[in-house]
Amino acid sequence: AHNTVEKTSVTLLGLGAMGTALARAWLSAGHPLTVWNRTPARAAALTAEGARVADSAAEAVAANPLIVVCLLDDASVEEVLAGTDLTGRDLVNLTTGTPAQARARAEWARERGARYLDGGIMAVPPMIGVPEAGGYVFYSGSPELFERHQETLVVPIGTTYVGEDAGFAALHDVALLSAMYGMFAGAAHAFALIRKEDIDPAALAPLLADWLVTMAPAVHQTADQLRSGDYTKGVLSNLAMQVAGTPTFLSTAEQQGVNPELLSPYFELMRRRLAEGSGEEGLTGVIDLLVH
Ligand code: FVH
């Protein structure tokens, strides 16, 4: 049977690595697509795949009610949209930025008569159009806009709406990526410890990956403790015991000729929390030391 449902037309501004991947996903799903890019050659490459190329950002914005921007940074969004008429448009901004930039951009769009959704992409370009890769985009801002376009937005990659505050998508994006860097930092220290030994890094890697996966659910206990305010709830390895173990980590690093600078700041926070008399807690109290 022929699919007679009309697909939503999309305007996409920005055809870098991510924008191009998004464009291809919408085109191959049959969505009429108008594109514009500062460097025209990148847009021209998509005409063979069915994209309509606008001569200017203003022309692209005039072409469709749904406008998606995927540019380098907030400054480039300002520059590209400056000469366009956003009245009545649904603006979806997939450009990475801070929560404050997203909130200001939402207000900026509202003043220009547009509805606004901000997006934080939790994926790299090869994950676009590949649902089994597990990537998704955090969205926040206008709930009506999200509901209206969810079917179109989900075509390239999964969607997770995190609230009406336009800054929340960026906040979730940065929170998850910050945790990722913490994980990478720990793994870097682990590889450094074995660097000069007769241990194959490829043998350590699966052990590390499995261990990190085993430990990851600890975040649920952290959340539970933060919600209840009881940081001793369910604690198996208390802070006093963990702080007592830190010299072993520092001595091992020294013996292996490894600079402990990635671990030491965390150990210092653990020591400070213990000094406040929180020996029966786990590690959740460290969070309160971080928040000004
Ligand atoms: N690629 C990735 O792995 C990450 C994954 C997570 C999300 N990020 C963010 O997505 C935004 C776009 O990233 P991208 O990978 O497409 O970035 P580039 O390939 O560098 O393309 C940048 C596009 O922005 C255009 N552009 C830059 N400055 C301006 C400007 N002043 N005026 C107009 N356009 C501008 C650029 O145009 P051109 O260089 O081709 O002319 C590209 O279209 C980004 O926020 C990531 O943080 C990606």
TrEMBL record:
Gene3D superfamilies: N-(1-d-carboxylethyl)-l-norvaline Dehydrogenase, domain 2, NAD(P)-binding Rossmann-like Domain. SUPFAM superfamilies: 6-phosphogluconate dehydrogenase C-terminal domain-like (SSF48179), NAD(P)-binding Rossmann-fold domains (SSF51735). The keyword Oxidoreductase applies. It comes from the Bacteria. Residues 10-151 form the 6-phosphogluconate dehydrogenase NADP-binding domain. GO terms for molecular function: NADP binding; oxidoreductase activity. Residues 165-290 form the NADPH-dependent reductive aminase-like C-terminal domain. It holds the Pfam family NAD_binding_2. The keyword Oxidoreductase applies. Keywords: Oxidoreductase. Belongs to the HIBADH-related family. This is NAD(P)-dependent oxidoreductase. It comes from Streptomyces triticiradicis.
